[in-house]
């Protein structure tokens, strides 16, 4: 099924990793790029995992909560005074100067649940235009600025809704990235290695490709149905970023991600308490918030902390309690309620639902 997509030229290659009933397997197929001189895809090929970084952001935050360094109820203004007095639009599509004060402070939990009031507005609005002008929105690469500059620019803008009342995607995790840096006075790279990737043996996961020659070339769909190079191995992720952004900024491998998601599927040891894993993978949205996020979350999904959670069997292969997420660069990872784990990494940016490889997930659910 997947090899056919490689043979048809729809993707240069892929790496899939699965764990089922205690047995694990990693399979690589195709090449790390198109062209006769491209290296074969290998189990340790590096990928830009884009929004698949978000579950690691949540796990890192919860590890700090477990360690007593912060609480989910903490107000973010304690570490981010830029957001001490946020304004809120009267209407999310209204003019930027038509605002009211926030009814309550923004909390750490609001960032993890994406209910803080920032995020991607799919409809045209003055707020979305201002976000775009300031280069603050979602993307497959981190914003071209430091984290401190990011929050400074964002603080100039009002929230789209009162904290905790709506749901918008992505930008709260960028803010969370800056907050974690300030809470610990450590770089996120150091903190992630200390709390998550180091204990789990995820040596290839970080904010840049330490071995660029192993990084797959990234492609984006073109208007004529083809693919064009978006980022080469010696491109954006070959250098340390100005902003260590856990919303989209990590590179990783299928074996590393299998270690991470398997550890959480088994209760979190040695990085999280079981109670924290349950909190991360529980549904934290209201029905109204789920409806607001449906275009991003998809049918049958809600949002936990940094990851989507299935709440309905909207597809035959969807099981309530299944959780995980996807990255716009062609990456996916999900955990079944029975502890099964599946990772799929490719280098073709997703353009429609069919390219989300639902047939792969359907086949895995039947194993």
UniProtKB/TrEMBL annotation:
It holds the Pfam family Beta-lactamase. InterPro entries: Beta-lactam-related, Beta-lactam/transpept-like, Diverse_Enzym_Activities. It comes from the Bacteria. Residues 3-345 form the Beta-lactamase-related domain. This is Beta-lactamase. The lineage of its organism: Bacteria, Bacillati, Actinomycetota, Actinomycetes, Mycobacteriales.
